Amino acid sequence: MDLDDADYVVRGDSAEVLPTFADGSFQLVYVDPPFNTGKQQQRRTLTTTQDADGDRTGFAGRRYATVETARRAYSDVHDDYLGMLEPLLRESRRLLTPSGTLYVHLDYREAHYVKVLLDDVFGRDAFLNEIVWAYDFGGRARDRWPAKHDTILVYVRTPGGHFFDQDAVERIPYLAPGLVGPEKAARGKLPTDVWWHTIVPTNGREKTGYPNQKPEGILRRIVSASSRPGDCVLDFFAGSGTTGAVAAQLGRRFVLVDRNPDAIEVMRQRLPEASFVG
């Protein structure tokens, strides 16, 4: 597939789509593969309206009806998770520019296995960071410490030769501003490899109704640091299209790939200016 200055959303199997791109086509590859939970992931969108015959009672005894307006889902069952990922990660390495970077977003189920696989595909000297994204919402386990973080593994195409623009990254407040002085406190500090950031709020502007949607703030940090305006960004587990939305906001081009028709429908609404293929 020849890439021009357009943005693309491709409906198809990544294993078939990625080999159609030329070597070194992308400065940045971000992927958020299924977490292999062994379940069908789904999210329902509900609308509540006042209705005298409704199914619930609200303030002052008013009755309300709740109606399901959308349901989006994808299968998250993979008997050979590493076997599924390995050819895609090898393609990712081929597709990166010499100064390019790969970010792989995982959770505790597969992160350690994928780290070993990436060491083999990219080389241990190509490992750049293990980023921990910590949040504080969702279910609460009663028999163990609640799992409230994801892992993002970062590898570069050329060890020591990757692009990274720390000045482009939005600074964050110091946890103890009184210890650094007023000037530093006002400027803020660069994020470390532990990122405290909320999930996508239920009623937030970003919400699309797609399961496990990632927040734009996480992608904004990644795209800002590891690509330049005009560079092309790839996400081949595109889901709700957050990578494309952020890339467009920051003046980058993007190619998104997903085979789930629900994902394509969400991205068609979220990214109306993109060219849809397949």
Largest sheet: 9 strands, mixed
Which fold name is given in CATH as the topology of the largest domain? Rossmann fold
Distance N to C terminus: 12 Å
Our estimate of the beta-strand percent is 25-35%
Residue-averaged pLDDT, rounded? 88
What is the assembly state of the chains in this entry? single chain
CATH class descriptor of the largest domain: Alpha Beta
Label the CATH architecture of the largest domain: 3-Layer(aba) Sandwich
Helix content: 10-25%
Query: What is the topology, as strand order, of the major beta sheet?
Result: 9-7-8-6-2-10-11-1-12
> C-alpha Rg, in Å?
20 Å
Number of strands: 12
Quick recap:
The protein has 278 residues and is of the alpha/beta class. Helix content is 24%, strand content 29%. It has 2 domains: 8-36 and 80-277, Vaccinia Virus protein VP39 (Rossmann fold), CATH 3.40.50; 39-76, no CATH class.
Explain what the structure shows.
The chain has helices at 14-17, 81-95, 111-122, 182-187, 216-226, 242-249, 261-270, and strands spanning 8-11, 26-31, 39-50, 56-57, 63-76, 96-106, 127-134, 149-156, 194-196, 232-235, 253-258, 275-277. With 278 residues, it is of the alpha/beta class. The protein folds into two domains: 8-36 and 80-277, Vaccinia Virus protein VP39 (Rossmann fold); 39-76, no CATH class. The strands form two sheets. It has a nine-stranded mixed β-sheet with strand order 9-7-8-6-2-10-11-1-12, sandwiched between helices. A three-stranded antiparallel β-sheet has the order 3-5-4, with no helix packed on it. Helix 2 (81-95) packs across helix 3 and helix 5 (216-226) crosses helix 6 (242-249). The longest helix is centred in the first third of the chain and has 15 residues, at 81-95. Mean pLDDT is 88; it is low at 41-48.
